[in-house]
TrEMBL record, chain A:
Record-given protein name: Sugar ABC transporter permease
Membrane-topology descriptor: Multi-pass membrane protein
Lineage of the species this protein comes from: Bacteria, Pseudomonadati, Pseudomonadota, Alphaproteobacteria, Hyphomicrobiales
Organism, scientific name: Devosia soli
GO molecular function: transmembrane transporter activity
Location of this chain's protein in the cell: Cell membrane
Gene Ontology terms: cellular component: plasma membrane
Stretches that traverse the bilayer: 12-28, 48-66, 73-92, 98-120, 127-149, 155-185, 214-235, 247-266, 273-293, 299-317
Presence of the UniProt keyword Transcription regulation in the record: no
Keywords recorded for this protein, A-Z: Cell membrane, Membrane, Transmembrane, Transmembrane helix
From TrEMBL, chain B:
Signal peptide feature range: none
Swiss-Prot/TrEMBL keywords: Cell membrane, Membrane, Transmembrane, Transmembrane helix
Transmembrane portions of the chain: 38-57, 64-83, 89-109, 162-180, 187-206, 212-231, 264-284, 291-312
GO cellular component: plasma membrane
InterPro entries on file: ABC_transp_permease
Pfam families: BPD_transp_2
Source organism: Devosia soli
Alphabetized GO MF terms: transmembrane transporter activity
Topological type in the membrane: Multi-pass membrane protein
Localisation per UniProt entry: Cell membrane
Highest taxon of source: Bacteria
Protein's name in the database: ABC transporter permease
Amino acid sequence: MIRRSLLKLANPQLLALIGVLLINWLLFPNFFRVTWQDGRFFGSLIDVLNRGAPVAILAVGMVGVIATKGVDLSVGAVMAVAGAVAATMVVAGYPAPIAVVAALVVGLLCGLWNGILVAILDIQPIIATLVLMVAGRGIAQLITEGFIVTFTDPVLIYIGTGSFLGFPMAAVIALVLMIIVTLIVRRTAIGLFIEAVGVNRAAASLAGIRSRMLLLLVYSLSGLCAAIAGIIVAGDIRGADANNAGLWLELDAILAVVIGGTSLLGGRFSVPLAFVGALIIQAMNTGILVSGFPPEFNLIVKAGLIFIVLVIQSPLASRLAPPRIKPVAKAAAK
Amino acid sequence: MNRSLRPLVATALIFAIAYALAVMQFPSMFSTRVLGNFLTDNAFLGIAAVGMTFVILSGGIDLSVGAVIGFTGVLVAVLISWAGVHPLLAFAIAIVVAGAFGAIMGLAIHYLQVPAFIVTLAGMFLARGGASVITRDSVPINHEFYAWISDLTIRLPGGGRLSIIGLTMVAIFIIGALVAHRTKFGSYVYALGGNPVSASLMGVPVARTTVAIYALSSVLAALSGIVFSLYTSAGYPLAAVGVELDAISAVVIGGTLLTGGYGFVLGTFIGVMLLGLVQTYIIFDGTLSSWWTKIVIGILLFLFIVLQRLIFVASAPGEKTSKA
């Protein structure tokens, strides 16, 4: 039952991904060519997976937040903080696993902080996470003392650029994370609870769902995912750049989730489709790059994409959501 | 005293205390020179923040502000330097373009019934991308009109100078306050922010007001972009990245409630000045790095949000401000 409805939902997004890939192929005939070299795959398609991984990981965390009618603007800044923590600790001589765990814990704490603001202090999610979005980069710079901390630690570099069974490590981590989170939310009742809180938090609380606990959980997960993405990005460039790591990626992550069909009004979400959404965004990025257009076109294409998705979603959204402001819209149209 | 004025008073008090502390440490900060530069340096942020105040009062948010500032700067620079248009005509074109841009966003928000946040996000991508497509480099503006305006200042006793762009910001704040508190449109904005359903039942033209609010925000962002181009004498597609966040911070610190329906334009002015004070203090100190600005703004934001919650929980017991 669940699987069938998932498949039904999957169609537009998967078709869009295939469409974008086909357009790329028309613009750049070698797009689908994948070669095996030095024990790993190479090619534009692999590049899409590799470059899309950080946004895909962020999107996996963001889905839960948006499904509860929230949004997490701080993930880009948390990426910078986590990368800074991992890099600084490795440079200070700590073994890589401890640095990675520390960075993940810091990410989790950042998420928990957001969760406390939203769930316990009842602050609007946009503004609650804005605090960390503004302050986070400052904190990251405080950790790195304003420098770009570079490192040569093999474990961190492997996380960012290594390969596993021929596939880029970043993509493997993203895929495994997506599968784990999907299983957790769909094989237990947690997904249902998240949707209930997203539709109506008060009603969900009255029905016995511990909505505060749940909100803390989804924001913590988002922070954790941001930390993972931050470590990957730091490993990729072999350094922690507090100013630019994850800059504006929160917007890409939100876009990926929206493309994935998750309603911004809460109550309907899909983790795998958000993952596909991130790949669609990256496929467009790569397509614009390999076909020789200036990268600035990317922003315009993204804006167009958001608009298309919004138009597609709007009649559906107004049918699913109770018609609150709709009569007015009709009256004004007359 | 009216208890609804409390957040405004709190902000003003914090600004006064912070300024007094800064002056105690650096007596030279208390001069007309610093105050004049205060207005000039924060003019573009202040003008954009007035537009943001209206948007937030109506319960929305506008993420496209920084991008519109950048786009306007490039458009004006290209029109003047490449096309040879007179600056005043270029300003008019930029304001009309921005107004249409904002109106389209308002239409999308109202008729597609999607959160303002995602529509203005698309607007941000579009404006920033459009600016970068026009030119990727900084376009300098060398026009006698620009030189004339830059020289147009009022000298204050003590060596300070009030520039025309600083005065523009003050004028926009005064007009903004009058529009918000003394006109029909202002009451519509407050009504919409308080509760859109009851606003429409009371006969507020929701569609027209929404479109007007976002058009106003974009027009003010364009004006801010013009001021920014006067300030830097150039147009750069990546100018003013993230100004929307500073503007939102200024509005929140100024005591406007993010759920909408409550706040003051004047509070935003104090918010902008407080942000400016943090920056000026860090420049005066010299040993603090610029990243402290971000951390201090983050802390201020947090304090004011918590303060707002405490005041509203205390003043309206039992009534939850949860917007369904």
